[in-house]
Amino acid sequence: MEYIFDLPNPAEYNITLKDIPSLACINKNLTSHVGRHTFGHMYLQKVQNLASLKELMGHTKIETTMRYVHLENDYLKSTANLVGEEFKDLRKRKRNTDAFN
Questions:
Q1: Half-sphere exposure of residue 69, counting CA atoms within 13 Å on the CB side?
Q2: Minimum mean pLDDT among 11-15, 61-65, 71-75, 78-82: which range?
Q3: Residue 56's closest CA among 72, 33, 79, 39?
Q4: CA angle centred on 31, ends 25 and 36, rounded to 5°
Q5: Is 48 left (phi over 0), alpha (psi -120 to 50) or beta?
Q6: Residue closest to 33 by CA, chosen among 54, 10, 16, 15
Q7: Which SUPFAM superfamilies does the annotation name (predicted)?
Q8: Separation of alpha carbons 58 and 45, rounded Å
Q9: 74-98 burial, b if ≥16 CB within 10 A, otherwise e?
Q10: Is the pLDDT of residue 1 over 60?
Q11: Which whole number is the average pLDDT over 12-33?
Q12: DSSP label at 56?
């Protein structure tokens, strides 16, 4: 798999990442794992495609990708609403078709 970013190994850049929160006045440890988790979470919120996220993160199993991502109620509701709207549209189209037959 070709990587999007050419980065050193996680141990090397974890050392650099430890300085960033203090410079930003944030009291939190920043690691490569936190970065991956944040990327996965934000990608899913914006793109809403778990299969493409799995590929981007280089996972072989979707279950591995799910460990990085917390499915929020808002995301689940919005997805369910999209599906619900599609079914409403299908029912309307069917009724309109039936009316003309």
A1: 27
A2: 71-75
A3: 39
A4: 115
A5: left
A6: 10
A7: DNA breaking-rejoining enzymes
A8: 19
A9: eeeeeeeeeeeeeeeeeeeeeeeee
A10: no
A11: 81
A12: H
For residue 78, what are its two tokens?
A: 């919005």
Nearest to residue 46, comparing CAs of 78, 88, 7, 91? Answer: 78
pTM across the whole model: 0.53
Query: Residue 60: what pLDDT?
Result: 92
Contacts of residue 51, Cβ cutoff 8 Å, sequence gap at least 6: 62
Residue 54 in tokens? 């799995």
Report the amino acid identity of residue 47: V
The residue to which tokens 């460990």 are assigned: 67
CB-based contacts of 69, cutoff 8 Å, min separation 6: 37, 40, 41, 44, 50, 53
List the one residue out of 17, 64, 6, 11 whose CA is nearest residue 37.
64
Residue-range domain boundaries for the chain: 7-69, 71-101
